[in-house]
Every structure is written in C-alpha cells, then in structure tokens.
From TrEMBL:
Pfam families: TPR_16, TPR_6, TPR_8, TTC7_N. The gene is LOC105360877. Keywords: TPR repeat. One of its GO terms (cellular component) is plasma membrane. Residues 4-377 form the Tetratricopeptide repeat protein 7 N-terminal domain. Involved in endocytosis. This is Tetratricopeptide repeat protein 7B. TPR repeats lie at residues 720-753, 788-821. Belongs to the YPP1 family. GO terms for biological process: phosphatidylinositol phosphate biosynthetic process; protein localization to plasma membrane. InterPro entries: Endocytosis_PI4K-reg_protein, TPR-like_helical_dom_sf, TPR_rpt, TTC7_N.
C-alpha cells in the first residue's frame, strides 16, 4: 500500500515537472500511468488530459482569428475533459484551473462571451495575490490577458462615455496584471533553467530549454501602452514601458525588449510636444531591495533591476539616445549572420528590426551632431547587412558627415552596385569626387552614368545630372591652361547648365552656376542677369549673394557691394566668408583702418565660435579625420584669398598634400606641435592672420605684419600662402633676395600659385634678371590670363627690355581686363551643391 502511494507521489511529481517544462505528450503518458495506479483520482486525470490536449493543439495551431474553425473541431475532446474536471467544488484548485483553461479554449474557438463567462465563474477578478507554482502563474497570466483581449473584441454594451472609459480601464488593468504575472512566470522559468544547467552533470540528464512567452502573453504586454496612446495618455504609456523594461531580463523577453525599447524611444521622439517630461525614478521596490526589505513585495510583481550605480536619464534626449543604443545593441546581437536559405525568414525579420532602430537612431543623433555614435552602430551593422542597400547608403552618408571621404567613396561604389537603377548614389559619389577627393574626371563619369540611369528609369533628377556634368566640366576648364581645352570644357559646361535649366526652370542652383560660368568668362552682364534670377528663386542663397557682391565690384560699384555685404551680415552675422570679402573690399575702396575693424571682429567671432572646439583633446578618430582631410586650405570657410585656394583647383589640393606632408615631417622631428582640436578650425584663423598681415603692410606697419605672419606660422609651419605673405613683407622692406626665396618656396609647394608667380616676376625685374622675370610672368598669364596684375607686371618687364610695342600691348590688356576684374577672384566662392 505504501509502495503504491509512493509511486503515485512520484508520478504526480513527474507530471508537475513536465507541466512546468511544457512536455505535454509526456504528461499524457504519465496520466495513463496515474489512472492505472490510482483509478479513483479521475477528476485530476480529466483535468490533466484536457490541459495537455489543449496545449498540444495550440502549439501547432496558434489562437488567432484565422484558426477559430479549426479550434472548434480540434478541441472537442479537450473541452469534454475540462468540463468534467470543472464539474466539482469550485474551491478546489483543479476546478479553478479547469475554468481558467476553458476560458482559454473558448477564446481559441472565437467564443469570446463564453470565455468571459468561465472567467466570471472562476472569479478571476478577485483572485488573491499569493505565491503560485510556475504552471499556475502561466495559467493566471494568460487568463488575465485573454480576458482583456475578449473585452476588446466584444462590442461595448453601452454608448455612455463613462461606461466606455470604465471598460477601457478594465481592459488596461487586465493587460497590466497579465504582463506583471507573465514576467514573474518567465523569471521563474529562467531560474529553473539555471538550476537544471547547474544540476545536470551526466550526459543522460534531460535537456531543459527556457520557456517561450507565447502569442497571448506577448500580445497582452504590447497592448496596454497602445491603448494608452489611443486615448491620448502619453505619460501613462511611457510609465508602462519604463515599468516593463525595468524588470529583470529573461531569455524569453529578449526579442520583446528590443521592440519595447524602440517603441518607447519613438514615443519620446514623436510624442513629447506639449508634455512636460518626467524623468524616470528608481522604484521603491528597488530601494527596498537595497536595504534588504522584501516582505512587502507582491508575489505577482516581477523582480526589477537595482543597484547603487543605476543610470537615470535627466531629460528626454538622454533617455531617447540610451533607449535606442540599447535597442541597437540588442538588434546587432540578435541578427542572423548565416546566409543559408533555411534562415531566410529569421534573417529578414531581425534585419527589419535592426533597420527600424538605425533609422530612429539616425534621426536622433544627427539632430545633436553625435554622428560618431551612429558610425559605430553602422560599423556593427555591416556584419549582417550584406546586400542591403538602405544600410549601406546610411553608412556612406555617415562617413561623409565624419569627413571620411575615401571610405565613403568605397562604400558608395558598393551602393551603386547594389542599386543598379538608382540615380542618387551616382550623384553623391560625383559630389564627393568634385568637392573632396579631387577626382574630377571620375566625377564627370559618375554624373554621366547618373544621367544614363535617369533616362532609362526617370526619378526626377535629370536637371541635377546635367548640372553635375556642367560643374565637372567647369572645374576642368578652370584647371587647364591649354586654351583649346579650356574653351571646349567651358562650352560643355554651358550646354549642360542650359539643359539643366530646361529640365527644371525653377532651380536656383542651375541659375547660380550659369551666372558663375558667365562671370568666369568675364561676361558680367549675362552673369548679373542669371544671379538675379537665382536670388529671385532663393533669396537667402549665400553663394549667389557672394557672387552678386563680387560682380558689383567688377563694375566698380563698391558702395553698393558694401551695402549688400552688410545686408547679408545682418542676416548671417557669423559668416566668415562674407566678412573676408568685406575686409578686402574695405581695404581696396575705403581704407585699411576700416578693414582692421572688420578683421578684429573676425578674430573675435572665431574665438566665440571655435575656441571651445580647440580645447577638446584630440582622440584617435579626430586624428584620423585630420589626416584624411587632404587639403590644408580646402575647406569652405577658408577658400577666400585666391583663385588657387578654391577647392575646384587640382593644383591647390596637390599643394595642400605637400604642405601636410611637410608639416608631419616637422612634427615628427619635434620642431612643430599641431594645435589641439580640429585643424580645419585653426586654418580659418590662419587666413584671418594672413589678411591682417597684408592690411598692416598697406598701412605701413611692417612690425605688426610680421607678428601676424608669426601667428599664422604657429598654426601651420609650411604653407605656400604664408610663404607668399612673408615674401610681401620682404618685398615691402626692399629685401628682394629674401622675397625671391619666399616666392620660390611658395611655388615649389604650389607651382600654379598665381600671386607668387606675379610677385616673383617683379622681384626678378628688381634684381635685374629680366629674362627670368618675363618667363615667370608669362607662366602666370597661362594659368590665369584674366589677371590684370600679371599683364601690368609683364608690361613693366618688357619695357625694361626695350620691347615697347609689346609692353604697350600688355598695359592695354591690363587696362581692359581690370575694368571687369572683381575685388577677389570668382573662383574664391566655395563650390556649392545646396
């Protein structure tokens, strides 16, 4: 008798264990053994059989609307056994559980009213929050979840707003209770899993895997915040998300946590307008845990993260970025790397989850210029983004933002292969080649490929394709000194700009480039017409305003140009480009004293805008960025002083590489220490110091000019611009040998530096080397035939050689060119694509 009773206990223990682990077929086998040993325990056997049959069916046929008819036929036997078990004293646990499972069964059949009836019979709403076993936790959690789902599916019994609100409150309460109990249940499952792992030492031990949440509980956890949002109660939804996410993570909730963190981040991003942000607070339960106080905790509340060093966001921006970075880490962790066909669905699902996070992260971090965070995320994304155009494109844009242009160029080539019909990647790589990489010929090829794609598959970018082809040819035209090639490329540029204008007559950028090309060819009236059209289309376009100011100086309308510059500075007071033009214009039209005031303001402005950046320590990434920025003067705000300093000139970029190489050599020999912070910021200051040095020379203050040059030398030790300015100082002091050396050094770095060639020719003349002077100035005329100073100096040299007729022609040419020569070269306007 005792032996039989002991066997019964052992079988019941095995049944409980297999119920907790979800081994329902094993439960049915054990129930048959239980019937044989204990025929009188028929009610328990009926319950276990009905439960096992129900769960086996639902594992294969999830409880969704599409499966209702299958459930009505497939769950007949399970329903019969559960009804037999329920037909007893309701105070018994077996009968209570049978009623709860009947509610689940009816829900699977689509019988929502009947399901609510069984929950009412079980008095689900009044259950006491007591310690329950693992399986009972699951049953109760699913019961609350199903009750909420059934209440949602049934139409409201009353049209009263009060009744509807009460019903909605009841639904949310069901889902919240279900979520809490579900988390408790899953935490218990993880505990059991860990115990099995630690306790199983033999190979024959049963393998136990963590329990999955199931569609019912997962739906319930997600529904509550959505209902809050539908009702407009955003703060309640945020509080709910925080409460769920603060619970200890379990194996089964990993995927769900990714979704919830992303959703909360999206709500904070989109839904905080008009709402006072409330920072999350440590829950009292957590504080209690730290003090060892656990007696007051409800057994239906999950354990939460606690500790002394928990980070608590202080504002919505911190919380947004934190949530999205957590989401990104989880998405990268869960991504499927295998390319095998059997993993295709899972691979697509995890990739879509990751992409959604990356899109939100992009919106958030770019807003606060934290692109480096985004770059790190995309670096991780590359391992599972094979063949995914969207991520590769985002990665390329991120690299461009970080000024990693060479790497971005390579990534864009991959994007172009992955998207054989897309036009935009071709245009992006074209811009990169023109603006940063000095690969003008390649850029023109990419723009032509973009046009071919646009013609084959129109995407509304035909105007931009023609425009980029025109820009490329305009750059080549400015770079070449062969007259025939220069004319040919100029014609192609005009033709392309005209086609762009025909494709989109309202594009201000096309009109600007037409004006710019006309100005480069000294067709001032035509240029003026187009720049005014450009400004009519977009009045705030800075390059068009810049061009208009220079065009006014070609017509000697200095007062009007100054008024225009002042008007621009009223709208854009921090624009150093415009201030630089203003200082030069004041120097040549008003006087050096006025220019000094403007330059003083530029230095003050530089300090306010950039000094904080220079105090930051240079990390490895910044160092890489500096070394990858090839041109010492190839930055928009510093393309100010001369034709060669514009980013459209290939020789300038080559000179900049030489300057940087020489600076690195100087640094390696400990003779020069680079300034801290981004170098492009310091280069802005160099330009201002050099302009100041020139102004001091005009004002007959050579000492102050020398000090200004020294300030520039402290920033960049080897630059053709600085060497040229040093040459001006020596020339002012009549130290022609020293001036010659400076100009020669400048030309050694940058053979096409027109100003150095002009002044070197004049210095040769002063030193009596008239042949060298003539050759040097003729070289300068080949590079820029529209510079009046070159022709004037050449006329002086030819006159000293006794070639009076040729000298007269040169002087006449100088006068002719000077009548339409701007105060600064047109090419000093930075290349623009906006």
């Amino acid at each position: 008798m005792t032996s039989k009773k002991g066997q019964t206990y052992r079988i019941e223990a095995k049944i409980d264990k297999n119920r907790d682990e979800g081994h329902w077929k094993r439960v049915l086998d054990l129930v048959d053994q239980l019937k044989t040993l204990c025929p009188n325990n028929e009610r328990l056997s009926n319950f276990l059989t009905g439960e096992a049959r129900l769960e086996i069916f639902l594992e294969q046929t999830p409880p969704v609307d599409a499966n209702n008819m299958k459930a009505k036929t497939g769950l007949i036997e399970a329903k019969r056994f559960l009804l037999l078990a329920a037909d007893e004293d309701k105070q018994l646990q077996t009968a209570l559980d049978a009623h709860l499972l009947l509610g689940k069964l009816c829900y699977a059949m689509g019988m929502y009213s009947q399901s609510l009836f069984y929950y009412q019979e079980a008095e689900l709403h009044s259950l006491t929050e007591t310690q329950l076993g693992s399986r009972n936790l699951c049953i109760v959690a699913e019961s609350f979840a199903i009750k909420g789902l059934c209440l949602e599916k049934l139409p409201p019994t009353s049209k009263s707003k009060y009744k509807i609100a009460e019903m909605q409150s009841q639904i949310i309460k069901c889902f919240e209770v279900a979520a809490n109990i579900a988390l408790v249940y899953l935490q218990e499952q993880d505990k059991i899993f860990i115990q099995h792992q630690n306790g199983s030492s033999s190979p024959q031990s049963t393998i136990h895997t963590p329990k999955h949440m199931g569609p019912i509980l997962e739906t319930a956890i997600q529904r509550a915040p959505l209902i809050y949002l539908q009702a407009g109660n955003i703060q309640a939804a945020i509080d709910y998300y925080r409460e769920i996410l603060s619970a200890l993570e379990t194996t089964a909730t990993k995927g769900l946590r990714l979704l919830l963190t992303r959703q909360l981040g999206e709500i904070l991003l989109r839904g905080m307008k008009g709402i006072n942000y409330k920072a999350p607070e440590l829950l009292e339960a957590n504080i209690g845990n730290q003090k060892g106080i656990t007696a007051m905790e409800s057994p239906w509340k999950p354990k939460r993260y606690n500790g002394m060093n928990i980070f608590v966001p202080k504002n919505e921006y911190e919380e947004m970025i934190l949530l999205l970075l957590i989401s990104e880490a989880m998405a990268a962790r869960d991504a499927v790397l295998s390319q095998s066909p059997e993993f295709k669905e899972e691979r697509v699902r995890t990739f879509e989850n990751a992409t959604a996070v990356y899109d939100l992260l992009t919106v958030v971090v770019v807003r606060w210029s934290q692109v480096e965070l985004l770059h790190e995320s995309f670096e991780r994304a590359m391992k599972f983004s094979r063949g995914e155009v969207h991520v590769w494109m985002q990665y390329a844009l991120c690299l461009i933002s970080l000024e990693k242009y060479v790497h971005a160029h390579s990534v864009l080539q991959v994007v172009i292969k992955l998207a054989p019909q897309k036009v935009m990647p071709c245009l992006l790589i074209t811009r990169l080649c023109f603006e940063h990489l000095n690969k003008v010929a390649e850029g023109i090829e990419w723009s032509q490929k973009a046009l071919q794609r646009e013609i084959a598959n129109p995407q509304g970018l035909q105007s931009r394709c023609h425009l980029y082809i025109g820009i490329g040819n305009s750059i080549v035209c400015a770079n070449t000194i062969v007259k025939q090639d220069k004319v040919q490329h100029s014609l192609v540029a005009f033709e392309s700009f005209s086609k762009a204008q025909q494709s989109d007559p309202n594009d201000h950028l096309t009109e600007y480039y037409l004006a710019r090309e006309h100005a480069m060819n000294r067709q001032i009236s035509e240029s003026m017409t187009h720049v005014k059209v450009a400004l009519n289309l977009r009045a705030e376009h800075i390059p068009s305003l810049h061009l208009l100011a220079l065009l006014l100086t070609t017509q000697k309308q200095y007062t009007e140009a100054l008024h225009l510059l002042d008007s621009i500075l009223e709208e854009y007071p921090n624009n150093l480009n415009i201030l630089y033009v203003k200082a030069n214009l004041q120097l040549h039209s008003v006087g050096g004293e006025e220019a000094l005031v403007t330059i003083k303001h530029m230095l003050f402005l530089w300090k306010n805008l950039y000094e904080d950046q220079t105090k930051a320590d240079i990390n490895e990434q910044q160092s890489e960025k500096r070394s990858e920025t090839r041109s010492v003067f190839q930055i928009h705000a510093s393309e100010l002083s001369d034709k060669d300093s514009s980013s459209v000139h290939a020789h300038s970029l080559a000179a900049s590489r030489i300057e940087q190489a020489l600076s690195e050599v100087a640094s390696s020999r400990n003779s020069f220490v680079p300034k801290p912070g981004p170098q492009r910021v310091w280069l802005l200051q160099v330009q201002v110091w050099l302009l100041l040095a020139e102004v001091f020379l005009v004002l007959n203050h050579p000492k102050e000019s020398a000090l200004s040059i020294q300030e520039a030398l402290n920033i960049v030790p080897l630059s053709h611009h600085i060497l040229y300015t040093q040459g001006l100082l020596h020339e002012y002091k009549l130290e022609y040998e020293e001036a010659k050396q400076c100009y020669q050094n400048a030309i050694a770095i940058h053979p096409s530096h027109v100003k150095s060639l002009q002044n070197l020719g004049l210095v040769y003349h002063y030193l009596g080397s008239q042949g060298l002077a003539e050759k040097t100035l003729r070289d300068a005329a080949k590079i820029d035939p529209m510079s009046y100073k070159t022709w004037y100096n050449l006329g002086i040299v030819l006159e000293s050689l006794g070639e009076y007729e040729a000298a007269s022609d040169c002087m006449e040419t100088a006068l002719e060119v000077e009548t339409c020569y701007p105060i600064l070269p047109i090419s000093s306007i930075p290349l623009t694509f906006e």
